[in-house]
Write a structure and sequence with these properties.
CATH class: Mainly Beta
Bound molecules: flavin mononucleotide
Strand content: 35-45%
CATH topology: Pnp Oxidase, Chain A
Shape: globular
Order of helices and strands: HEEEEEHEHEEEEEEH
Number of helices: 4
Largest sheet: 7 strands, antiparallel
Strand order of the largest sheet: 3-2-6-9-10-5-4
Length: 184
Amino acid sequence: MPIPTHPSTSSDELKSALAGFCTGVAVITALEADGNPVGMAVQSFSSVSLDPPLICFCPAHTSTSWPRIKAAGRFAVNVLAEDQQDLCRRFAVPGADKFAGTPWRPGGNGAPLLEGALATIECELTDALDGGDHAIALGAVTSMTAHRSDAGPLLFFRRSYGRLPRSSSSMSESMASARSRSEA
Ligand SMILES: Cc1cc2nc3c(=O)[nH]c(=O)nc-3n(C[C@H](O)[C@H](O)[C@H](O)COP(=O)(O)O)c2cc1C
């Protein structure tokens, strides 16, 4: 189905409106065939389906990481914690050596799992759909682990980072710490 265009909607207006939608932040990582780790920060991560378990994220066509993640065919979603702002900034700089000084270990599918992430979700890339100037990358979840119960999520709202008030993050932590599953 062709994507309709509405010239009356400017990119700046759309960006301003969408900036009011508060999200968490994730770093999508993959390991290239030659062993090089690759990664990019995204706020476009979302769950799609529980049965079968599917997630998605939307990489810009300008991203240099995306073609490399696509070629790897599998990736990990690292859900960032509130104390990982610096790490997030590093993974948002196009073309930078993002893994310099970033502790990580390979997951079951080889994709880098970043130390300190709240949770990691390993996926097979099942599809890359047309999303205008972005792609819609669909991933089938193969494994997931909740790692931390001592921190809340890193938030992004109106172009700034934030965190949940202490009481509500404690509540979500206790819910998250109960869940830890691997390899369906
Ligand atoms: C909080 C935050 C969220 C971001 N979300 C996305 C996103 O969903 N999709 C995207 O393509 N870029 C997103 N970016 C920008 C990319 O992280 C950045 O452009 C990317 O690292 C490009 O680098 P590369 O050329 O090395 O891939 C986001 C950046 C920040 C700081």
